[in-house]
Design goal:
The protein is α/β, with parallel strands linked by helices. The chain contains 14 helices and 9 strands. Helix 5 packs antiparallel against helix 7.
Length: about 375
């Protein structure tokens, strides 16, 4: 999330606050002096946007809150010729403006007034290209979760039937030999159908994963941030792509702590005049981004001695592995911030390993 920076060049322009609804949206139109020029609702369809365009000049500064419809509204208004659009961060906005009652007209007025004086906390909208990349990655994450769940179901079923221990020994629970052995299992009753349904479902999910990986690799090849993050041992193109997708342009974060806060790994604070309390991590931001960072910590600490020593020292000092893990997440994201901001490769990188990982980006 970026704070809105007041632009004095535009302060003499009128503003509009829009409270977006599913079927209708409320609009408050203010003059540069803060006087209400218009207050109306418009339908969320072509006729409604035409009405909006007939009543609101193109030079108007427009603001609305981030929501599921924000991308559609932003794109449609730009097609109508509105270029000065700000999307407000909903949580930051709720801290500034607290209201016990939901009122669309009042909310649109509050948005307009905050925008008028340059106090609107701004949310980051992805470009169409970046949004597609994010969607590919999210589907890949969900698919991996389904595959893992199905594998656990198969293992649990075979253990329940006393057959799991009879499978060939392997470090991979689903190696080719084990898969072949599973196919050869015969109960000679309806259990055969149960097992076949689960194994067929697993194969179906794995087939869906492959084209996603191909497309993600194609995009990762041309992404310099992804390739920079891949210099970290333990982070492959997939994990690097996830982290890069959520970070976006690192310059939108003024410092490393702001990036850590975006990932939700900064402790919550509750201060009074004499006491400062630090609680659990805030868990703000996208859960998937935080999950990716958590996985990165797990894989990187296995391969990086300084980071592992940091984790161990925090764990010994605090007596909590969970606390140490979150602290290490915070340390790693700060290191990533420096890498991206200063265009540095990982200081502990294994060059041969990095070259090997980058070469695999060309494998389809």
């Amino acid at each position: 999330m970026n704070k809105k920076i007041r632009n004095d060049k535009n302060m003499n322009s009128p503003v509009v606050g829009i409270d977006i609804g599913e079927e209708k949206s409320a609009v408050t139109y203010l003059s540069p002096e803060g006087e209400i020029r218009d207050n109306f609702e418009f339908d969320m369809n072509t006729d409604g946007y035409n009405e909006f365009a007939s009543r609101i000049p193109r030079e108007t500064r427009i603001a609305f809150e981030a929501s599921g419809s924000a991308y559609v509204v932003d794109r449609t208004l730009r097609e109508f010729g509105y270029n000065d659009i700000t999307v407000a961060h909903p949580k930051e906005l709720s801290w500034i403006v607290k209201s016990k009652k939901k009122n669309d007209k009042v909310d649109s007025l509050k948005l307009a007034k905050l925008h008028l004086v340059g106090m609107l906390p701004e949310s980051h909208l992805l470009s169409e290209e970046d949004r597609i990349f994010r969607d590919l990655l999210i589907q890949r994450v969900k698919l991996s979760s389904e595959i893992s769940s199905m594998k656990n179901s198969i293992i649990g079923y075979l253990k329940r039937e006393g057959l799991y221990s009879s499978l060939p020994e392997s470090n991979d629970s689903f190696s080719e030999k084990r898969r072949e052995a599973m196919k050869n299992i015969k109960f000679n009753n309806q259990k055969d159908l149960v097992l076949k349904t689960m194994t067929d479902r697993l194969e179906f999910l794995e087939r869906q994963r492959d084209p996603l990986d191909v497309e993600i690799k194609k995009i990762a090849r041309d992404n310099e941030d992804v390739k920079l993050l891949m210099t970290i041992p333990g982070i492959d193109y997939y994990l690097a792509s996830l982290l890069s997708s959520y970070i976006g342009d690192v310059k939108r974060f003024p410092n490393a702590d702001k990036l850590a806060s975006f990932f939700g790994v900064i402790p919550e604070t509750r201060d009074s005049s004499t006491i400062r309390r630090r609680g659990h991590m805030s868990k703000e931001g996208a859960a998937t981004a935080r999950w990716a960072l958590s996985i990165a910590v797990d894989t990187v600490t296995l391969r990086n001695k300084p980071l592992k020593e940091y984790y161990d020292s925090v764990k010994n000092r605090k007596g909590s592995g969970k606390y140490a893990h979150v602290s290490t997440m915070r340390k790693l994201i700060r290191m990533i911030y420096t890498m991206l901001k200063e265009r540095r490769e990982w200081k502990y990188q294994d060059v041969a390993l990095t070259e090997s990982k980058l070469s695999r980006l060309d494998d389809d």
